[in-house]
Amino acid sequence: ANILTNSTLNGKALNGYKQQAQNTAAFDDYSDKQVNKHRKNNIENEDTNDSDVELTKHNLVQSSALLWMIGLSSCSLIPSFFSTLLIGPYSDITGRKIALVLPPVGGLLRALSCIINIHLHLPLWTLLPGAFVEGLFGAWCTFFTGTVAYISDITSTEYRSFALVILDVVILIGTLITSVASGYIINLLGYSYMYLTVCIGFSITTIVIVILVPDSQKRQEDIKSEIMTKETRQIPKSKLMTMENIKRSVRIYITDNDTNRRWKLLMLLLLMAMHNLGDVSVGDSLTYALLNQPFCFDSVLIGYYNAVYGSMQLIGALFLAQTKRCLHLTDGMLLLIG
């Protein structure tokens, strides 16, 4: 689910969809109005020809599409942040499966909304509800958090960092494959088949998690014996998502305990927010740079570019994994290097 979310819905295959969006009625209507305004402002100088008009229209459409893409990413990223804060602590008591199942279901719903938008030629704003629903289901933030928590439940402290690096490596290998494959699917079959592939991937992910992935019972026992209060033990699992439990989930970031962990948690949240917001905006802008001169990449070349970029991350992850074990680097040093 992480692979499909990062390599399709969050900026790779969806970047190809932006090219189709340029041909929709909404963008054509907007760009025509802007071009007519440009003609009116320059008609006295008689310096506007057909190539100027097409260039102006092209630039206006791309700048508008970029704003739409950042808006779509934000529409999913912002609610997913709050969903993660609630689903994460909830999974401490009910088990990790809820944090692993909800995100691919949300991704499936968003992919279906994209398919409907393509076939019915709906306005671009109709993509926003799908992105918002994906965020409510946690998106990749909750899935990655749940995966990391699951690994923490079943591994010892000694090998935990190495296991997380292996997780990143597996994700990047999948990203290499899907980046190249998505470019060819878009180029040969079209965008609908790309999102149909995403739907199939998310469906398989959901089924595998529900049927094959065992829950981490060890963590539930630790919670019951060490963390859960007497009041919490009296609350049935079916009523855990109450206002009191929402407050309990947020309280960890507001109040502190003897470990002085509050400022560390807030600092990590700030760093994650800055990293993700920059990653979203840079990724979309970079795609437009590749689509334009002097590169003029198509979906296939963009797929290969993403694959090469991902392979560089893969090499870096493997290098850091070996460096940490040989030089005994701490997790803080690994974070700083990253």
Quickly describe the structure.
This protein has 338 residues and is mainly α. It has helices at residues 2-9, 13-21, 25-42, 50-94, 97-120, 127-136, 139-154, 157-188, 191-211, 217-227, 230-233, 243-251, 262-291, 299-327, 331-337.
Biggest beta-sheet profile? none
Choose one word for the global shape. Answer: globular
Order of helices and strands: HHHHHHHHHHHHHHH
Average pLDDT for all residues: 75
Low-confidence stretches: 1-32, 226-240
Count of individual beta strands? 0
The helix-and-strand class reads mainly alpha
- Our count of helices gives 15
Q: Any descriptors?
A:
globular; 81% helix; 15 helices; mainly alpha; 338 residues; disordered N terminus
Describe this structure in words.
The protein has 338 residues and is mainly α. Helix content is 81%, strand content 0%. It contains 15 helices and no strands. The protein has helices spanning 2-9, 13-21, 25-42, 50-94, 97-120, 127-136, 139-154, 157-188, 191-211, 217-227, 230-233, 243-251, 262-291, 299-327, 331-337. The chain is globular and about 70 Å long. The protein starts with a helix and ends with a helix.
